[in-house]
């Protein structure tokens, strides 16, 4: 069962998402919050698999709520998915840096929304390759992060290759096919790279790969 926490200051939005989730046999809404402070408190109380958080809210916004969740070791299993009205707005990259697993636009189709929740619950990033390129090209103004660049030296050749493929949007199964290894080995390479780079999840691994210059932005 995928446990979902809804954090949005608009009751109508929360009701709409709850109605969709309540129809699914493998999902349940464990709580609702109208601002980031309440959302973080409920995350600690319920330990959801997914925290669906609006990026713009009063009191504490989605970026700060994400940062607080990511910084709390007791919430390591909570995957934050950011909700936005505008797609690639100026706040999305900050949310990914703060620890979000990905983002969704509020006008997403219901079937795509449900698929996205399942993808995030598996620990995969909600970042399609084309979206990743646009995001990075627009918001990474200083691509080299020296602390990350230093940690990159700790990666093995295979781990570095796996990170590059994650940044290209490949799943573990696709990485395994590309590297001619088993899916379990591919997952191991990705997880070890995440540990060495101090990345919370695959989305943050993508951000770090671009910031450190391991992957060069390309025009979409």
Automatic annotation (TrEMBL):
Source organism superkingdom: Bacteria
Question: Response regulatory domain location, by residue?
Answer: 3-121
Q: Which InterPro entries match?
A: CheY-like_superfamily (IPR011006), NreC/VraR/RcsB-like_REC (IPR058245), Sig_transdc_resp-reg_C-effctor (IPR016032), Sig_transdc_resp-reg_receiver (IPR001789), Tscrpt_reg_LuxR_C (IPR000792), WalR-like (IPR039420)
Q: In this record, what's one Pfam family?
A: GerE
Residues that the record marks as modified (4-aspartylphosphate) are 54
List the Gene Ontology MF annotations in alphabetical order: DNA binding
Identify the residues that the record assigns to the HTH luxR-type domain, covering every copy: 148-213
- GO terms for biological process, alphabetical: phosphorelay signal transduction system; regulation of DNA-templated transcription
Gene3D superfamilies xref list: 3.40.50.2300
Among PROSITE patterns, the record links this protein to: HTH_LUXR_2, RESPONSE_REGULATORY
Q: What keywords is this UniProt entry annotated with?
A: DNA-binding, Phosphoprotein, Transcription, Transcription regulation
What protein name applies here? Response regulator transcription factor
- Organism annotation: Antrihabitans stalactiti
